[in-house]
Amino acid sequence: MKLNTEPNIERPDDFYQDLIDLHRDLTEEQSRQVNARLILLLANHIGDMDVLRHAMRAAAEEPA
Amino acid sequence: MLKTYDYPEFAYRPSADQESGRTARHPVIIVGAGPVGLTAAIDLAVQGTAVVVLDEDNTVSVGSRAVCYAKRALEIWDRLGCAAPMVGKGVVWKVGKVYRRDRQIYRFDLLPEDGHKMPAFINLQQYYLEEFLVRRAGELGVEIRWHEKVTSVKAANDHVRLAIDTPQGDYTLHADWLIAADGARSLVRRELGLEFKGQAFNDRFLIADVKMKADFPPERWFWFDPPFHRRQSTLLHMQADNVWRIDFQLGPDADPEEEKKPEHVIPRLKAMLGEDTTFELEWISVYTFQCRQLDRFRHGRVLFVGDAAHQVSPFGARGANSGVQDADNLVWKLKLVMDGSAPEALLDSYDSERVHAARENLLNSTRSTDFITPKSDMSRAFRDAVLDLAEHHPFARRLVNSGRLSVPATYTDSPLNTPDEDAFDGGMAPGHPCADAPITRNGNPGWLLNLLGGRFQLLCFAAAPIDAPPQVDGVAVEPLTVDTDFNDTEGLVAKRYDGKPGTVYLIRPDQHVAARWRIYDSYKVRAAFDRALAR
Which residues of A touch B382 (CB under 8 A)? Predict the structure, then answer.
């Protein structure tokens, strides 16, 4: 399977706001832990190693 | 300390070789009388080869050191006739529990099925293990020269030259073949100028062996961030003689000399065991570890085994257990090459099979180490996130890594295997170690593995008897037929090997599967046999 980088979230602005709200009032340390847990939960949901590796590569790329 | 064990002292006795003043030549010399060197020596002796072992010390392992011995190592020692005292003296266990703070987050069972002679693991102090091996070596006439330190190793074309230092001066020996079992700081390795590649880790760990009456069950308990040792990890194992192994992570900045002092160790133990528990200190050691290996284990006539070839962290019990499998893999090959029954190329398969196994061990060991001692803030954040999630989310429990415990090596990609042509279920593909199963023989209960090993065999699931099994250059394949030579009373042999009438397995002397078929074909067996001998 290939990493889907086409729009796939139905209400992108809602999602983005939830993500920011998730970190509201957290210290940097707490935010880091929340992010780490979130990545692990999502990675397990995806499951497919090809997709996960593809996503890791895409995330590691420096923005142009 | 050490109140529970009296060290045997093995006296130095000048050998006839040394007294003769001439350089004697031996077929095989082993450097190092640790668990791996002794196992190789015993295996050679069982196969009828004279062997000399040199060891610079004059006793067994000082301290309990390697404590966990896995099923496959015990099966190998059982083949060599010395597992019974180990299992008798050792503490049998199979359950591991992982705690975070004061809550259990994960539990594993290493041998969920019955019908195996050997347990998943025993815990036994290394000095007992070595004592039993020395005793077995003695029964078989292995010559162990204690207090003899190899000082120089020179590889010649068809032999190896050794210089040896003894309490009564120096002498020299030549060996057709040299087995280097001289441990992580191998002198043989240094003398040959070989690079030991890998990674050193900075974290220090404290081992405290304590004698106490405790009602912990015989299980492996591992804590992340326990209340009695915050921010670090702790491991608890039960050993023989009511001795308990407690292993505290200390971090990279700990001072080893200070940490070893009883006034520092005792408060740590009291915090863990409670003020009222009475215990005595048996042995204390502070260690760091490295994960390294040689690129090749065969260098001409020098063959590296055990820690001399590869060194891992203790998490996972992959040190001694893999070293014993090195010996198991090497000795039958060396014997056939020495007898002229197989080409030297057979020894290259020792190299490829065991280098591959060592890589796997190293990988597992390094991964466990990275989980237990995270090297960066982000690595620690993910590790803690896994532990946070593990209590309520089953997926995260499988990411918890407190040591992936030693499993037998499978030589799936070995050049000695003949790939399957027929369809089989179950786990006994070429390269796999044979699974044990209960059997009866002449009406007496026994075990399949006790009928296998030490020679090439054809495990036949009864149909027509095998007419003329192959025999080449003095090496024979011995048939072992279900219903004729033994009875598969519980049906577990057939089940574990997917054996149907006519099924035939070609099994190597180290109890690994070389090939298998649904129908016996002497031409195919002969070809697979040649291949398993690198001919």
Answer: 36, 39-40
> Mind giving me the DSSP string for B294-336?
-S-SEETTEEE-GGGTEE--STTS-SHHHHHHHHHHHHHHHHH
Torsion region of B184: left, alpha or beta (phi above 0 gives left; psi -120 to 50 gives alpha): alpha
B400 to chain A: which residues are within 8 Å by CB?
none
Shortest CA gap B362–chain A (Å) = 22
Q: Band the pLDDT of B148: cuts 50, 70, 90.
A: very high
The torsion angle over the Cα atoms of residues B139, B30, B322 and B303, rounded to 10 degrees, is -140
ipTM of the complex: 0.96
Could you tell me if B523 lies within 8 Å of chain A, comparing CB atoms? Answer: no
B16-90+123-195+292-367: CATH architecture: 3-Layer(bba) Sandwich (3.50)
Is the model's pLDDT at B441 over the cut of 90?
yes
- Note the CATH number of domain B438-532: 3.40.30.120
- In chain B, which segments carry CATH 3.40.30.120? 438-532
Query: Mind telling me how many Å the CA of A21 is from chain B's nearest CA?
Result: 20
pLDDT at position B191, please? Answer: 98
In B, minimum Cα distance to A45 occurs at B395
Interface touch B382/A40, C-beta < 8 Å: yes
Q: What is the pLDDT of residue A62?
A: 81
pLDDT over 90, % of chain B? 90
